[in-house]
Amino acid sequence: MFDLDLYLARIAMPARPTLDSTGLGRLQHAHRLAIPFENIDVILGRGIAIDSASVFAKLVTTRRGGYCFEHNRLFLDALDALGFTARPLLARVRLGATDMPPLTHTFALVTIDGQDWVADAGFGGSYTPVMPLVDGAQAEAPDGARFRLEAGAEGWMLLRDGDPMTTDGRGGGDGFQPQYSFTIARVFDVDLALSNHWTSTAPGTRFLQQPIVSIVLPHGFATLTGRHYRRRAGDDVSIGEVTDPRVYRIRMGLLFGIELTADDVAALGLF
After folding, report:
1. ∠ Cα 17 23 26 (to 5°)
2. Among 24, 32, 80, 136, which residue's beta carbon has the most beta carbons within 10 A?
């Protein structure tokens, strides 16, 4: 059974959220502030299990991070335990895409008093606030970025307009930039399993190329992609390259809360 109290402690949320859009937004933000986005186990060849027990053990019990299929499995389980009505959706990430991208992202569709909302506790590119599923709906993230939803003949598109420093470095440009597209077709566990397997094992996929880690800050975002570090916290901006494996371990632990051994870092092949 899902241990809601342990989950709420993991995300430093002292009380259960209200079962409305405000509570949903507070829950998602707390989740992203506490649990990093990361693909370390993909790079180390450990495989990614997305059943509820495995995800809880990794992200909550052992206090690691994960990528979207792990984050949003945990988040959907928490929503269910709290009493929200929610189900998963699949999306095509449009950041930097020139051809039609595959379905490599998942997030949640939450229904509150007859209104559908999109909630995403696992998008590594930036922080996406909870939004009503309404054509033209807009929302502002705590880092100042603006988001917009647009409906079209082939489904929905999420767009972002904000400082590139509060992203993982992709999708820069003036004005609203596409983030991902999706439909609200029903998604089954086998669909998630297939997309997760492809995302974590197909040669040439982004997650097999280099370690990618990010964390949401109260008013910003921090990423460590390969050896390259980017962080914006309010008006404070820093960019650099990590050239020492010991510094890499320290930064992973202090900023992202990910404890790696020296052997783990060596196996990443960065130094």
Report:
1. 95
2. 32
- The pLDDT value given to residue 107: 98
**DSSP for residue 211:** -
Residue 172 has pLDDT above 80, yes or no: no
Which CATH number characterizes residue 22's domain? 3.30.2140.20
The Cα–Cα gap between 189 and 171 comes to 30
Q: Which domain holds residue 190?
A: 4-267
Question: How large is the average pLDDT for residues 15-36?
Answer: 98
CA–CA separation, 22 and 256 (whole Å): 26
Q: Which residues contact 135 (CB under 8 A, 6 or more apart)?
A: 149, 150, 151
Q: Is 171's pLDDT higher than 80?
A: no
pLDDT at residue 218, as a whole number: 94
Half-sphere exposure of 265 (CA within 13 A, CB side): 19
Q: For residues 60 and 14, what is the distance between their CA atoms, to the nearest angstrom?
A: 16
Domain count for the chain, please give it. 1
**Are the C-beta atoms of 216 and 127 separated by less than 8 Å?**
yes
Compute the distance between CA of residue 104 and CA of residue 114 in angstroms, rounded to an integer: 28
Average pLDDT rounded to a whole number, residues 83-89: 98
pTM beyond 0.85, yes or no:
yes
The C-alpha angle 28, 33, 34, rounded to 5 degrees, equals 100
Write the burial class of residue 5 (CB in 10 Å: 0-12 exposed, 13-18 middle, 19+ buried). exposed
